[in-house]
């Protein structure tokens, strides 16, 4: 997956038209109000950028909302982890925005067919995964570029992540962390039962991945692309969508590439 991280600043002058959004928490809403009182607020269609106050999950929601407007998003961490956000501080926000550096993300596109034959489409900046719905493990055939690579994986589920999402669910499932510029997609099983020793694969960003649910009526599974969940799927196809992109802004020396490297050295 090509995710260029630029050292160049996006704005030559301090942006004056800012749209503020905040998670429905007291701290995020209070911080948003203070910023609006100081810098004003405009709707997405008039904005130069969006300032998002919340956690990583709320930032992902915001990326989906601003995608049609092609607006860069600068996140301020009012949540817990804040991997995709910048720290909250009393520093001049306009100065921080002027010096912020962009990272461009391309999402995955999921096409999921349910047991009734209906097609569902969604995009994901973090990951697409399939997960069992009942007490029984899922049985999944995995194809890459129309070639069967694993005839049957018995597991709780399986994930395809973006490099940006490789530190999220993928990492919790013991998948590899992938640098942003690696042009790779981690494919990671969730609690694999058979083959027990299979730990997943690293795929080129151009790969087309297809999951076919075996015994899908007996072993139902759901497919999830960020916030879209499709129940009772029979087949799921995943590939990078180069036609769409989102830009996230980071403070200098606080970029996403650096945090992905640092994450690999933390206990």
UniProtKB/TrEMBL annotation:
One of its GO terms (molecular function) is NAD binding. The keyword Coiled coil does not apply. It is found in: Cytoplasm. GO terms for cellular component: cytoplasm. Its EC number is 2.7.1.23. Its main location: cytoplasm. GO terms for biological process: NAD+ metabolic process; NADP+ biosynthetic process. The active site is at 56 (proton acceptor). It comes from the Bacteria. It catalyses: NAD(+) + ATP = ADP + NADP(+) + H(+). Keywords: ATP-binding, Cytoplasm, Kinase, NAD, NADP, Nucleotide-binding, Transferase. Its cofactor is a divalent metal cation. It holds the Pfam family NAD_kinase_C. NAD(+) binds at residues 56-57, 126-127, 156, 164, 167-172. Involved in the regulation of the intracellular balance of NAD and NADP, and is a key enzyme in the biosynthesis of NADP. Catalyzes specifically the phosphorylation on 2'-hydroxyl of the adenosine moiety of NAD to yield NADP. Belongs to the NAD kinase family. PANTHER family: NAD KINASE. This is NAD kinase. It comes from Kozakia baliensis. The lineage of its organism: Bacteria, Pseudomonadati, Pseudomonadota, Alphaproteobacteria, Acetobacterales.
């Amino acid at each position: 997956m090509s995710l260029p991280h630029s050292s160049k600043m996006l704005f030559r002058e301090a942006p004056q038209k800012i749209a503020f959004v905040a998670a429905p928490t007291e701290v995020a809403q209070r911080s948003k109000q203070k910023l609006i009182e100081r810098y004003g607020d405009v709707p997405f269609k008039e904005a130069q950028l969006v300032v998002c106050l919340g956690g990583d999950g709320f930032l992902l929601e915001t990326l989906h909302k601003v995608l049609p407007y092609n607006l860069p998003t600068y996140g301020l961490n009012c949540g817990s982890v804040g991997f995709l956000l910048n720290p909250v501080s009393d520093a001049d926000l306009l100065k921080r925005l002027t010096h912020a550096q962009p990272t461009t993300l391309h999402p995955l596109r999921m096409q999921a067919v349910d047991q009734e034959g209906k097609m569902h489409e969604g995009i994901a900046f973090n990951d697409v995964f399939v997960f069992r719905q009942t007490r029984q493990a899922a049985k999944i055939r995995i194809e890459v570029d129309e070639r069967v690579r694993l005839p049957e994986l018995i597991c709780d589920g399986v994930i395809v992540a973006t490099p940006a999402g490789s530190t999220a669910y993928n990492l919790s499932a013991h998948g590899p962390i992938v640098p942003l510029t690696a042009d790779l997609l981690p494919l990671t099983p969730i609690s694999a039962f058979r083959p027990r020793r299979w730990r997943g694969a690293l795929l080129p960003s151009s790969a087309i991945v297809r999951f076919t649910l075996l015994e899908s009526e007996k072993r139902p599974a759901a497919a999830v692309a960020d916030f879209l969940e499709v129940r009772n799927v029979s087949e799921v196809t995943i590939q990078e969508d180069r036609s769409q992109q989102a830009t996230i802004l980071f403070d200098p020396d606080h970029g996403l590439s650096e945090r992905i490297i640092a994450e690999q050295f933390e206990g």
